[in-house]
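Researcher: Structure prediction, please.
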Amino acid sequence: MYFSDKEENIIHAFYTNIKLHQKDELILKWDEENCVVAKFDTCFDDDNDLEMEEEGYEEFTSFAFTVISVSGNPPVYITGDNGFLIDYHNFPNEILADGKKIN
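Model: Predicted structure follows.
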């Protein structure tokens, strides 16, 4: 998978390790008050909804999760069916599996 310079340092380690944790409950932590316990669903190429020729257009990788529980007010939009996305724009400071940091 190709990562832009903006993404590389933020998501590469998580992307590399996610296959080891596809069935695990993960804790996504932005800080102590804002966390989501979730299961990883999939990742895909995404963009910022601009046309390719428009200034500011960018492509990036998004990761989809299913919510198990939420604490605080994490910077994600949770859909009616308990799904949410993260990408390098709103990536958590830590992602834990079995108490160990995987990002």
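Model: The longest strand covers residues 35-47.
Researcher: Thanks, that helps.
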